């Protein structure tokens, strides 16, 4: 007997919620790319430009200042990223609670908010693109519809998270390798030009924004993986769950979505399909 998940997740209002949260996360990721440009690529470009400037050029001093200023601008961008993520997480929470037919407990999830105008505004771009809209159907594996509701909710929650840890581990490693490589190049450029110790130290104006971005990114990713590990232990402990326990899990998923690092779409798309397919196969086996 159907528990209704397969039907509810494909209703127009559910698709609109998915479209809105996806657009908001896409916007957050675009802002994240701008933050990377300001914190990493612009300082590196400034260091590279120094190779072509005369030794006494005043533009050298300007390049050091620009590198630091760009880092400060990235803090402003990060604030907008967090705002986008929080709204996207709230809309996705509304989607999950509706699809799961789960009561909205304000003690656990916080106060309900009317975000219908936001849903209409942010869903428009994806809803009007038939290919992008089509990808939102059957968000959860349709076979979960054949199980009892509580079991199906747990399977959907598991499907939400089972591919995410691997993606974050890959991104953390690639970020570390990239920044170590770029910082090394900045120092090598100075050594190649036979710069004095004082001038080499000035090059830290380019390195500091990169390291600040790396430390912040790795710190956030580590917290993400700690939350996901805790969720994995709860979700996969082979103990049947009550609705209250599923609500507690859903709160943790909600918090993760609000706080997690918005991995750029370029990296996300490389691994997403294979990882999500694996997650769906796991759910199919559980069924």
Short description:
The protein is mainly alpha-helical.
Describe this entry's structure for a reader:
The chain has helices at residues 5-8, 12-49, 59-100, 106-109, 116-127, 130-134, 149-161, 164-192, 197-202, 204-235, 243-259, 265-286. The chain has 287 residues and is mostly helical. The protein contains twelve helices and no strands. It starts with a helix and ends with a helix.
Main traits of this protein?
78% helix, 12 helices, mainly alpha, disordered C terminus, 287 residues
Which helices and strands appear, and what pairs or packs with what?
Layout: H1 5-8, H2 12-49, H3 59-100, H4 106-109, H5 116-127, H6 130-134, H7 149-161, H8 164-192, H9 197-202, H10 204-235, H11 243-259, H12 265-286
Number of DSSP strands?
0
Note poorly predicted spans: 278-285
Residues in helices, as a percent range: over 70%
| Mean pLDDT reading | 88
Shape: elongated
The SSE order reads: HHHHHHHHHHHH
What gap, in angstroms, lies between the N and C termini?
14 Å
Biggest sheet, in brief? Answer: none
How much of the residues is beta strand, in percent? under 5%
Cα gyration radius (Å): 23 Å
Give the number of helices. 12
Q: What structural class do helix, strand and pairing data support?
A: mainly alpha
């Amino acid at each position: 007997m159907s528990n209704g998940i397969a039907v509810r997740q494909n209703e127009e209002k559910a698709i609109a919620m998915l479209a809105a949260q996806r657009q908001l996360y896409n916007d957050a990721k675009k802002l994240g790319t701008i933050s990377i440009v300001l914190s990493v690529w612009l300082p590196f470009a400034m260091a590279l430009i120094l190779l072509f400037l005369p030794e006494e050029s005043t533009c050298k001093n300007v390049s050091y200042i620009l590198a630091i200023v760009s880092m400060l601008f990235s803090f402003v961008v990060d604030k907008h990223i967090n705002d986008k993520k929080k709204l996207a997480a709230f809309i996705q929470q509304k989607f999950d609670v509706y699809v799961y037919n789960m009561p909205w407990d304000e003690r656990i999830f916080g106060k309900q908010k009317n975000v219908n105008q936001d849903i209409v505004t942010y869903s428009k771009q994806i809803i009007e693109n038939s290919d992008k809209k089509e990808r939102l159907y059957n968000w959860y594996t349709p076979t979960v519809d054949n199980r009892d509701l509580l079991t199906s909710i747990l399977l959907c929650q598991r499907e939400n998270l089972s591919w995410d840890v691997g993606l974050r581990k890959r991104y953390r490693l690639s970020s570390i390798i990239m920044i170590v490589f770029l910082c090394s190049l900045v120092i090598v450029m100075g050594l190649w030009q036979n710069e004095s110790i004082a001038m080499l130290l000035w090059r830290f104006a380019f390195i500091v924004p990169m390291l600040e971005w790396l430390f912040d990114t790795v710190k956030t990713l580590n917290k993400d993986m700690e939350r996901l590990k805790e969720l994995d232990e709860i979700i996969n402990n082979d103990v049947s769950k009550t609705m209250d326990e599923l609500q507690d899990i859903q709160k943790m998923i909600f918090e993760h979505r609000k706080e997690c690092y918005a991995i750029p779409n370029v990296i996300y798309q490389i691994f997403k399909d294979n990882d999500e397919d694996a997650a769906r196969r796991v759910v199919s086996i559980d069924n």
